[in-house]
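Provenance and format

Records in this collection were gathered into a single text stream. Each protein contributes a sequence line and a token line. The two records reproduced below are adjacent in the stream.
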Amino acid sequence: MFAVRLTADAELRPLNPWHAEEFLANLDRARKNMTPWVSPAFVATDLDGARLVLQRYADRWARDDGGIWGIWSDGTLVGGVLLVSLNAGTGVCEAGCWLEPAAEGRGLVTRAVSRLIDWAVDERGLHRVEWRVLAGNVRSIAVARRLGMRRDGVLREVVAGPDGRSDLEIWSLLAPEWRAHRAGAPRGADGGERLEN
């Protein structure tokens, strides 16, 4: 078991299938804000569905092609970050996030994704981290900008949804860019140290 301190009252740690009840409760609190931006396959509506989502990511972790971590604030799961994909052979991964409204505005996602990128670049030796976001998702685009990512381009009308088709923006950063960004970026009041149990 490990945890990474994000703030004095928040930490990042693995999100496992046995957290399904907490995950479903978090999704229920975040559902209205998430639904326009996140795949319906992720936004489970019942306990079995929540367990299935977490099991898919546990299986991805076991195959070394993805993973999921929760953000807990004062002991409550309020969101998380994930590696939607990870390919050590090509050196490319795709990161993502979600957060319930009550936890917004505290920098939790930016800190959590920063730790995820640190791991991907420093420990796994990945070269490129991607961030794929629907064009209207200004909060997620703001995270990409804060992380020092660049917009590579737009896939026009590539995502079909109930209200029509949407553009998908592709943002990314390369390992050397991340190292330069990190060297100039503040780490938070507590330094974001790793906690071991």
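Adjacent record:
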Amino acid sequence: MKSRHPATLVTALTLATVLAACSQNDQQETDESDHGEHSAEEVSGEFNDADVEYVSGMIVHHEQAVEMSDILLAKDDVDTDVASLAEEIRDAQQPEIDQMVTWLQDWGHDPEDDHGTHGDHGNGHEGMMSDDDIADLEAAQGDEAARLFLEQMIVHHEGAVSMAEDHLADGKSPEALELSEEIISVQQAEIEQMEDLLENI
């Protein structure tokens, strides 16, 4: 047994060295991975005037979509599928508003200065509803409200898609360009969904 002790000790020391090296490598990989994830979450800092104009306008555009969804969801006797869609639109677009506000701040722009003066309905952003349109939606009930919401939101989404397509041609910010691609994909699919819902109301 004594003759095996030195070998056992060497083996143990070797194993400890290997494990320590592996642990160090794993920690380095973890640190690099964490650093990569952190970097991916940071705003690149690249942007141009087209990005600022687009994000400012899309904040207003999204705010109205959230408002329209809230109006519909406050009503009774609305088609459940339409109500579910309105909830999905609201839940998706509010976080995007928050993200875009953060981008403007990171770019050195005050969100209130950039879009606060454009808060009136129908301010010229594509697909925006007018004050009268919003009033009509507020006054409608039941199937009439569901139908009007769908008709208005289709136009609203079409405007957002058009804005996003223009931004893809002119923008610079990787984060904002990625959002534009997502808006086009998601809202075009929702337009098709809303057209199908209209046929059943």
